[in-house]
Design goal:
Two copies of one chain form a homodimer. The first copy, chain A, is mainly α. Chain A has ten helices and five strands, in the order ββαβαααααβαβααα.
């Protein structure tokens, strides 16, 4: 667990890496959510975490994230990178009512109107809208891809981060598995844009790595099938006529 | 692994239960594939295997099967129990060509014409068309359900067996999880008829329990989430407004 931007001081506990960039991001309807330097720092932090996890012997990375209101930031990122209409990329997150949902779409629209995001400037897009978790996850994905280690993406937040990662380095998509398809509509848009087929599709919307972890045994099974299962040739089975 | 009807003598090897009913079934276009007594014996064998597996401490059972040409028998069973047209329930199995596929459909039609299967007589339907594996799997499912142990079904062969099990004891469906949806068209028909949603849907068509095993970690995760994960109440998290 990596604290890249919790808006409170956290006690040191085992398993928590203190890598806070700042205590929370800013309101993207009023200005950029973070500075470019902050976005770069979060990207580098994510890449360093991936590097350290791989150095520790892990051969498959899995994304997870916790963040408040981060489906809103994800929707803005997804619209920025894919050109999707905010009404099609914004979902009900934790289960907001219709009025709050309308306001959420409107907030995304206001953000897009204010920042005129340029998908050719992925760091600028992350700075405009991202949570620190988005930027750190984008770095984590890039770190995994650079080391040729597969990374299983969780839901819509990881998907939005993957769009930023792939905008920075298109080949990074080859390292990505879509762990699942979440119930958030922006996630289906994202997976379609990235050309990723989700391994699990059970209408989950929990986040925190749950969907990606469910897919991990499937990826492990696929790797074992490729490596360990006998072929007709190796087992001396006659081909059918 | 249970030998209920391999058409050859098998050496004793660890892990192989010798429970052969007969060395192979008969051609269902010429007569019933097995006698009613043989169908009953295979059903009982499957139920006994489930009972023994549960007695050994297993709390979730998984089906698997090996059999030659058993997608043809499965198609005939699926048509018998669901009333589906043979063209919609018959698939290409191991990848047969168009002419063989047409002949496969025609074989299923001839079997149905010959036996006039009555879905209200599930043992008769199994005897008419079944492989021994279908009857044994149906018994296995009934044995698991009777002991209130969940059973994860593999693909189209297990699905055809589940139709027989559920025809015998409708409540047995409550014990069944559809591990995956196979590429065989009869399997989608079967899952729809049983009202089961597949946990994995990756276009697999291998059989031998592979699809069910892929779903096992998902079922285990769901059980752990229900049992071990804190609720908002238990963790003292404030409800949202």
């Amino acid at each position: 667990m990596v604290d890249v931007g919790v808006a409170a001081d956290l006690e040191a506990v085992p398993g928590l890496l203190p890598r806070k960039i700042a205590p929370g991001t800013a309101d993207f309807t009023q200005g950029p959510a973070m500075t470019r330097d902050q976005a770069m720092a979060a990207l580098v932090t994510g890449a360093e975490v991936a590097r350290d996890r791989v150095a520790a012997g892990n051969r498959c990375l899995v994304t997870g994230d916790m963040g408040i209101a981060n489906t809103t930031a994800s929707a803005a990122l997804i619209c920025s990178f894919t050109g999707t209409d905010p009404a099609d990329a914004t979902g009900r997150g934790t289960g907001i009512d219709a009025a709050t949902y309308a306001r959420k779409i409107e907030v995304v629209c206001r953000g897009l109107d204010r920042h005129h995001p340029d998908p050719a400037d992925p760091v600028g897009v992350l700075a405009a809208f991202g949570g620190f978790e988005h930027a750190a996850l984008a770095g984590f994905i890039l770190g995994a891809a650079a080391l040729r280690v597969p990374v299983i993406l969780d839901g819509v937040i990881a998907g939005a981060a993957a769009l930023a990662a792939v905008a920075l380095a298109p080949d990074a998509v080859a390292a990505c598995f879509a762990g699942h398809r979440s119930a958030e509509p922006g996630h289906a848009v994202t997976l379609g844009y990235l050309g990723l087929r989700p391994l699990v599709d059970l209408g989950l919307r929990l986040g925190e790595g749950t969907g990606a972890l469910l897919a991990l045994p499937l990826v492990q099974s696929a790797a074992r099938a490729l490596r360990d299962v006998a072929t007709f040739d190796s087992a001396g089975v006659a081909e059918k006529n």
